[in-house]
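Go through this pair.

…
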Amino acid sequence: MDLYYVRYPLINSLSSCRFHVNSNIMSGFNGTKENSHNKARTSPYPGSKVQRSQVPNDKVDWLVEWHDYNPVEYTAVSVLAGPQWADPQITESNFSPKFNEKDGQVERKSQNGLYEVKNGRPRNPAGRTGLVGRGLLGRWGPNHAADPIITRWKRDRSGNKITHPISGKNILQFVAIKRKDCGEWAIPGGMVDPGEKISATLKREFGEEALNSLQKSSAEKRELQEKLQKLFNQEHLVIYKGYVDDPRNTDNAWMETEAVNYHDETGEIMDNLTLEAGDDAGKVKWMDISDKLKLYASHAQFIKSVAEKRDAHWSKDSETGCPG
């Protein structure tokens, strides 16, 4: 499913496919101080008319003293209504979350290590956002998602791998979905359910969005599961895990994801699975990987990393490394 399985309200398209993280604390796709933590400071807040307090680049870091910092408080009505996927308000007397650890079935540990808790509220590890509360996010602290990247080699009718005429590298393909909420192409993905292992989330999300598993009969679901088991039991590459610069992030709640690549080397497993859009996906297809891709949010960066790790074609230029 999509943003995300726990039925968070869908939001409009993100304005940029560029992925930025705080270079001091995040690993993965590095950003500079000037361009990191951008989406988490954008206004209006998604799905609302709420304007964040403006946070200049030099005041993002919590270590920089800012006595006049006066963030706006906002938590969406849909979150305050108390759905199953959301925490209570931090002020409720019967709510005592265990931050930085596994709290019952809820994972409150961050992929990026310990985060600070101030006045009973967790602090966004990437810095100030101009907004406190949870916005559209259900959990105080990290809200965990998972993105399965399923790949195969592009082949001709004879079954031979197709190489790019300029780079000379084999062309890789991945399963892409077209999101219903914003119309952009993306990696299938969704929220991790309480108590669910990341590996289970990855398989479930791919089945629901790219194979329409929710609409299958019990017998069809069993058959799908057997075929998917072969794919997801293979060795895999963890492409990224950690904080995501997301427009829903606040000072007290933020998105984190784990993007994992499962590669069908021979293509035989995926040849036996019919792609069919389901749940929050409008369309689904195999998409050639190259620097021409226009994808939702940070997904282009994830895909670029897959191409580099698989030594596949990315661009016509010989240099494919990430900029420093």
